[in-house]
Amino acid sequence: MDARNIFRNLSPIDHRYSISEQDVFEKLVPWLSEEASIQACVKAELALIKAHLSVRGQATAELLSALEKAGKEVDPEAVYQEEEITHHNIRALVNVLKREVPSEVAPLVHLGATSVDILDTALAYRIKGVTQEVVLPLLAKLELALCELAEREAETPQVGRTHGQHAVPITLGFAMAEYVSRLGKSILEIKKRVGDLKGKLAGAVGAYNATSMIVRDPEELERRYLAELGLEPSEHSTQLVEPEYLLRLLLEFNVAFGIIANLADDVRHLQRSEIGELRENFAGTQVGSSTMPQKRNPWNSEHVKSLWKAFCPRVLTFFMDQISEHQRDLTNSASQRFIADYIAGFCQAIHRMTTVIQGLGVDRERLLYNLRGGAALGASAESEWGRKGAIVGGVLAEPAYILLAESGVSDAHEVIRKITLQAEEQGLSFAQALAEHPEVLRRIGEKMKDLGLVASDAEVLAFFEQPERYCGLASRKAKTLAQKYRSLMESL
């Protein structure tokens, strides 16, 4: 076959991303390429011959060596040319392989098997291999980068946000620990699910009809065949392996993909000009806009989100491939081939997100500025709208309400709410507004001293001027989760 110019390929995976993500692409080729698909089927056919020889006690070292050599001689191009004659991919493969193996074992090629005994088994072999050799290592690398970031920034104060509004203080490390925990659990689930992939040698309808004519124990022959490929038999087969083994693994891929897309969104939003807490690494020669020279766009995070948008809907096809009429139809023959595209897109997103996290810049001064209400102060100077809900230090309204309630005030929430309204209307910080209510401040202070939060009355108001002191267990949780998942990834 003539070599094709890379820029004449149709899929972006095979031109744009094979260039920009060269290392990932090269790791995927041995498992997901068409060459890899044919080679896996060859490997399955050879495993079947070995199983027959093993049962017959004829598996000599000389024959096994000859089989390995024969497998390497099978040219994918020759298989494709043979298929032009047979119009059947597996029969074409069988014809080519028979010409390469020693003549005495040629009758054993494909003996007792139906096409899907080879195809489903070879697919399970490839998906298991790419998951263990490429997907899990890429995920572990991202997870470790997140662990490092979470631990490093465990005590870096940040304003928490709900509904896009300032909530109460956390730390940046705590925010990243969310993804450490979510992605870490998904990685462990993927590891479990990939171990559940199965193969088969149960024949045209799954009842071992053909192999019953060859050996006394067809299930033992099946076990030997699959053991050569590191697999176990499907509990029940039709012509197909039960589809749920693969489906559950692919669904967990999509769970992890969604977590990574969510992370990309958070990182992207925190780079907004008006927030400015994070920044992606930006090369000295890099251009952010073709017309606005000052732009530094978070394009890598956006790229990850865009890949998720392209591939997440493929899950619908995975579900549709779950259904096959009676003992088998052929409605998954085309759709199942695109699993390779999905895994490739997933891996490229993981790699890109890892690059973002490893090179992420953190502006600690801006984080503190936003937490203390600096951005809110700037907004209030602009317009009446900007003042509404934009109170400097307003994120400490929660502890004020909690402490006041603990002191015995039943309508503490309403009392503090009115103080926040006063702060809005008079342009005061929350601490200044609170100081104008000495009885409320006294009650709060007494409770803080009881809890050991402050030692004197003078420290009470200072607490409400420093929201970074109200971060709960954020720092501890960030460090604990980072240490936990680092240990799990290193033993993966």
The biggest sheet, with number of strands, parallel, antiparallel or mixed sense and barrel status, is: 2 strands, antiparallel
Derived from helix and strand composition plus strand pairing, the structural class reads mainly alpha
Task: Give the rounded overall mean pLDDT.
Answer: 92
Read across the widest sheet, the strand sequence of neighbours is: 1-2
Q: Assign an overall shape.
A: elongated
Strand percentage: under 5%
Share of helical residues: 55-70%
Protein model, in words:
By secondary structure, this protein is mainly alpha-helical. It has a domain at 373-465. It is 61% helix and 4% strand. The chain is built from 22 helices and 6 strands. It has helices at residues 16-20, 22-32, 34-56, 61-73, 76-86, 89-100, 115-152, 172-194, 218-227, 244-269, 299-311, 315-320, 339-358, 364-371, 374-380, 384-387, 397-406, 412-426, 430-435, 438-450, 457-463, 474-490, and strands at 157-162, 165-171, 198-199, 232-233, 278-279, 361-362. The chain is elongated and about 100 Å long. It starts with 15 loop residues before the first helix and ends with a helix.
How is the topology of this model organized?
Layout (H helix, E strand, L loop, with lengths): L15 H5 L1 H11 L1 H23 L4 H13 L2 H11 L2 H12 L14 H38 L4 E6 L2 E7 H23 L3 E2 L18 H10 L4 E2 L10 H26 L8 E2 L19 H13 L3 H6 L18 H20 L2 E2 L1 H8 L2 H7 L3 H4 L9 H10 L5 H15 L3 H6 L2 H13 L6 H7 L10 H17 L2
Parallel strand pairs: 3-4
Antiparallel strand pairs: 1-2, 5-6
